Amino acid sequence: MDGLDDEQEWALLLRVARRLGVVDLFAAAGGTKDHKVAAAPAIEVFLRSIDILYDEGLDVSVLAEREPDFARAIERYEWLLEEMRLLPFRSMIRRAAQELAPGGRLRQKLEGRIRHVLVDEFQDMNRTQDRLLGHFLEMGADLTVVGDDDQAIYQWRGGDVELFVRFAERYQTAATHQLGENHRCRPEIVSFAKAVVHNLPGRLPKVIESARRKADPGAVEILIGENPEGEARCIADRPVPSPAAPKPPPMAATWQSSTA
Q1: Same domain flag for 171 and 201
Q2: Is the domain of 41 the same as that of 114?
Q3: DSSP string, 179-206
Q4: Of 137, 155, 176, which residue sits at a domain end?
Q5: What is the pLDDT of residues 40-66, one digit of tens each?
Q6: Is residue 105 in some structural domain?
């Protein structure tokens, strides 16, 4: 199968959205006639809905009971992709998880051959990605994950921080290692960030200290804008600090040696 990136998938749907019933779905949701609806907004909502379905690993049979028209549109679209031998990027993880499940074709080829799996930024994993990793574990692989629940920022695209927070509970044989030194930020940045996240509900307890020396005064600033335009204006209007006075050159020491 050939991969289908976001732009290519959009172009394909623009050609077939009405025949698949995507525009009808969008029109029905808005209470309008399908011939009065442009295809572009219907495609956007359809793709966002598919992302939720795939990222959350929702059962299509349950979807068919609750939203049969949407389920039929997805079935028609997936049938078309299969016929054209196309695989959109958004469905690759889901397809891989299906093929690695018991009885899947990839499962038969890779059984016992995957020894180690390392996952970074685990706090942003979604449920389908987690299911994929679960199949690797079933096949005998060791799993190492690295993450920080305080840095979970992808909930808007299906990331579920609970998968990381409850990792030790879900895998009770797992060993946990704390990485308590921050080598990226100055102490003032770390202290400010700790104060921001300290009261977040359900966060894992941790001790984080900066491994760097203190910064010059003014290392942390708070700028507030009511909207993106106001935020940009706030940054653009920020006073430029005057250059610091030049530091004196380091003292040089001269060493003399002699031989007897």
Answers
A1: no
A2: no
A3: --EESSS-HHHHHHHHHHHTT-TTPPP-
A4: 176
A5: 999 999 999 999 999 988 888 888 999
A6: yes
pLDDT at 258: 39
In this predicted structure, what is the pLDDT of residue 216?
82
pLDDT of residue 176: 92
Q: What's the pLDDT tens digit per position in 174-211?
A: 999 999 999 999 999 999 989 988 888 889 988 889 99
pTM of the model: 0.78
